[in-house]
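Running co-folding for NAP.
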Amino acid sequence: MRYRRLGKTGLHVSVIGLGTWQFGGEWGKQFTQSEVDQMLGRAQELGINFTDTAECYGDHLSEQLIGRAIRGQRDKWIIATKFGHQFIRNFERAERWAPEEVLAQLEASLKALGTETIDLYQFHSGSDQVFNQDALWTMLDKQVKAGKVRFLGISISSKSENLYQVQQASQVGASVIQLVYNRLERGPEQRVLPACQEQDLGVLARVPLASGLLSGKYQPGTQFTQADDVRSQQDQAELQRRLQWVQEIARQEVPPGVPMAAWALAWCLRHPAVTCVIPGCKTVEQIEMNARAADLVSADHPQAWD
Ligand SMILES: NC(=O)c1ccc[n+]([C@@H]2O[C@H](COP(=O)([O-])OP(=O)(O)OC[C@H]3O[C@@H](n4cnc5c(N)ncnc54)[C@H](OP(=O)(O)O)[C@@H]3O)[C@@H](O)[C@H]2O)c1
């Protein structure tokens, strides 16, 4: 594994992290505690020390599964979670941004994770309107001072560029940005990633496999028909266009013998602003394959620690 400094937090995170939206049950699979125990145990053996979850991956369900899986191993993990929503049912959330609502979510996340402190607490892809609440950031600053949160972050929405929230990050006390960045979605290279570098913000690249398409295992024509798989909710014509594009990339850019998923993760990590990728995983085998992407990553990176 390789490690990098997560911007001005100074935390040393593995370049391959573990995304865990999947544990909430919206990716065509329900997870047992024993499966999650095995996945996190194997991730830890492979040197992965960072996991990203959220309040609404199930009703704190993903957090609960993680909390139980790492009981007794808390110091081995840097845990990121988020605030701003209440899970109602699959693919349906209620927005909850009032400071007292966020405080209640924080208490629920601490309980679910079985921890006294959350390492990274992220604003979960809200609008500028809910972002621009001094009372929210003041309340969060108090939680940092009280030790319930170590660092604050902003997981920007993919609906627009969201440069504004990135530019305001240091102002509101946030030191990490989470954003969609992968070989098919390079928009952040224009203005967002440079803005992160200017402020020395850590950068978490989410959806690094373009929802699994960049694994290379799906051929054009694949239909995601399972009702509890989030990909059945996506624009199917756009999905087909992307599958064609992935085939071209596989032919033209992926070196022979290199698994496309590992290549796609390493591709994100080449950018000097990117600290860590957080591929969502569903099996121990996927974790093992994704961890191997660290072998393709050069030690020559501005945030390299090893
Ligand atoms: N707003 C936000 O803050 C936000 C939004 C989205 C995601 N996130 C975070 O970012 C994480 C990653 O994003 P994501 O999970 O949406 O997308 P992703 O990482 O691009 O894709 C994940 C999917 O790719 C497939 N996969 C993973 N590793 C693989 C491998 N080695 N070989 C083949 N297939 C593999 C799995 O699905 P199949 O095997 O079924 O194909 C997995 O569910 C999430 O888990 C979550 O923690 C945050």
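Result summary
Residues 19-22, 27, 52, 82, 124-125, 155, 178, 206-212, 215, 217, 261, 278-282, 286, 289-290 surround NAP (CB under 6 Å).
The chain is about 35% helix and 20% strand.
Job closed.
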